[in-house]
Design goal:
The strands form five sheets. Strands 1-4-5-7-6-8-9-12-13 form a nine-stranded mixed sheet, with helices on both faces. A three-stranded antiparallel sheet has the order 14-15-16, with no helix packed on it. Strands 2-3 form a two-stranded antiparallel ribbon. The protein folds into two domains: 337 residues, Rossmann fold, CATH 3.40.50; 151 residues, no CATH class. It is an alpha/beta fold. 46% of the residues are buried. Helix 3 packs across helix 4, helix 5 packs antiparallel against helix 7 and helix 5 runs antiparallel to helix 8. It has twelve helices and 18 strands.
């Protein structure tokens, strides 16, 4: 009879090749051994059906349940940088089962200063089902660094390569690696590739269309953080300085910007704004479908001599008008666009509207100064490495690329007028507005704050819109939107410059009773 230890040894010897064979038979696990120059695959493992991903940010819904998929994690160009810190472009790719793959690849954009590898589910602006659940292979990246102190940690910029990766290099690098992983896993390349992002992700989408025009077939760029330095000048300096000039002072003479307006002031302002412009789209519903066509002048609310009720102090009205007009230099030249009078400008919360500013903004504490040297500040608030300013997209468009923009009308961080300005500037370089509309469309979202929220219909499917345009040639004239702010309501988001207007009959809660109309101005 064989000794027990010999039996165990024999079992181990016999099971070793079986285990290796099992791993080789598992196409997901085998990706751990995939060799790509400069790339480390750190993990490749199957994820069971029904998995739910925690919310990506506070108050957001969880993502899932997701279908069964293979998740691959890795790092591109791992290295030591400034102060001996470890850097490298972290990424993740989610691969649906081969029988469920739709043949396409989608990459999701980042947010803030990036620095985390978000779960590659492709949930944002994809409608009711994440891209992964719809059969897309999905990728995400931290763009080359790890956030240490939160979503707006930009300390990595001291390292030149990390800064370059964040500015424009990383997404194209990850897209290339993801495509190789996809081709290996499914034994054929992705048919089409898409990129969807908002804020920093919106900027990334613009960068990709400009610097890497053949990497993606379709790009969705939402509320793009186009000119972060100049938007910072506007919201962290220009607007607070305007408000400070009319704000009450504390005992030391310091302006109290959080007391610039009272809640009654804000209600009075919004009531007057909505009375003037809400029904211009055919129905008074708490939404301004065409804020660009709103002829509201806050001056109508200024207190006249001897009156102090149901009005706002003239100096406060003057400050509001100056703030919303946007920063100008000493010569009267507009440095950064102004902002729209819209339904969400008095909202409070994590993303406060421009008439509800507290003591701290996205870029830190607001200034307490009452003067501002715009020329000096603007000179140092432009960064060509990060800013997606190029308008020559001839290669992108000739390659069949489609580019969709969207922007919330109540975005208090990046003005929708800046995105409109860029979109309009495409015409001069690319054969005129009509020619540009053959491959690029823009959608304004009434009431929406930065990338979501506000008194808005902020749930819409831009992924389907761009896919249908790329693969079927169906240009999106309108995209249907819904949202928690108005339960049971739907509206068409119309391709700029058109806006939604009620046809006058039928349920005014139903998008089918609205049409996209040219502005009457």
């Amino acid at each position: 009879m064989m000794h027990p230890k010999l039996l165990l040894l024999l079992a181990a010897v016999l099971s070793a090749p079986l285990a290796a064979q099992s791993q080789l038979a598992d196409p997901c696990a085998s990706l751990a051994g995939l060799k790509i120059a400069g790339v480390e695959i750190t993990k490749a493992a199957p994820v069971p059906a029904g998995t739910t991903v925690p919310p990506p940010y506070p108050n957001a819904p969880a993502i899932g349940p997701l279908p069964a998929h293979c998740r691959v994690d890795g790092v591109i160009n791992r290295r030591q940088g400034v102060d001996g810190q470890e850097f490298g472009i972290g990424f993740a790719v989610a691969l649906p089962d081969p029988s469920a793959w739709n043949g396409d690849f989608m990459m999701q954009g980042g947010g803030g200063g990036n620095g985390i590898v978000a779960y590659p589910a492709g949930a944002n602006y994809a409608g009711d089902k994440p891209a992964l659940s719809r059969g897309f292979a999905v990728a995400s990246t931290d763009t080359g660094h790890k956030a240490k102190t939160g979503p707006f940690d930009f300390s990595f910029m001291r390292d030149q390569q990390a800064y370059l990766d964040f500015a424009f290099l990383a997404n194209a690098e990850v897209a290339g690696v993801a495509k190789q992983i996809i081709a290996h896993y499914y034994a054929k390349p992705a048919a089409y590739s898409y990129f969807v992002g908002c804020s920093t992700g919106g900027r990334e989408g613009m960068i990709l269309s400009q610097r890497y025009p053949t990497v993606f077939n379709g790009i969705v760029s939402g509320d793009p953080a186009m000119r972060t330095g100049l938007s910072n000048l506007a919201i962290a300096q220009w607007i607070p300085v305007a408000y400070n000039q009319a704000a009450p002072k504390d005992a030391s003479g310091k302006p109290q910007i959080d007391k610039f307006l009272t809640d009654d002031d804000r209600k009075l302002f919004m009531d007057a704004l909505m009375k003037q412009c809400d029904a211009k789209d055919g129905v008074a519903d708490g939404m301004l479908s065409d804020p660009l066509g709103c002829d509201f002048d806050p001056a109508v609310l200024a207190c006249k001599s001897g009156r102090s009720e149901s009005c706002i102090a003239p100096e406060k009205i003057a400050a509001i008008k100056k703030a919303f007009a946007g920063p100008k230099n000493a010569y009267g030249t507009q440095v950064y666009p102004g902002f729209l009078y819209d339904a969400g400008i008095t909202m409070k919360g994590g993303v406060s509207g421009l008439l509800a500013m507290g003591t701290r903004g996205i870029f830190g504490p607001y200034t307490t100064a009452t003067e501002l040297d715009v020329d000096k500040e603007a000179l140092h608030d432009s960064d060509p490495l990060v800013e997606p300013a190029s308008t020559n997209l001839s290669t992108f468009s000739l390659n069949g690329g489609k580019l969709i923009f969207f922007h919330g009308d109540s975005d208090p961080w990046f003005s929708p007028l800046d995105t409109i300005g860029y979109y309009q500037s495409l015409a001069a370089t690319n054969g005129g507005a009509e020619k540009v509309s053959e491959w690029s469309r823009m959608f304004l979202v009434p009431g929406m704050a930065h990338c979501g929220g506000g008194p808005a219909l902020d749930h819409f499917d831009m992924l389907t819109a761009v896919v249908s345009w790329v693969e079927k040639g169906t240009a999106p004239d309108a995209v249907i939107a819904t949202g928690q702010a108005f339960p049971g309501r739907s509206r068409p988001l119309c391709a700029y410059p058109k806006h939604a207007r009620y046809i006058g009959t039928g349920d005014s809660q139903d998008a089918r009773n609205f049409q996209c109309q040219e502005p009457a101005r």
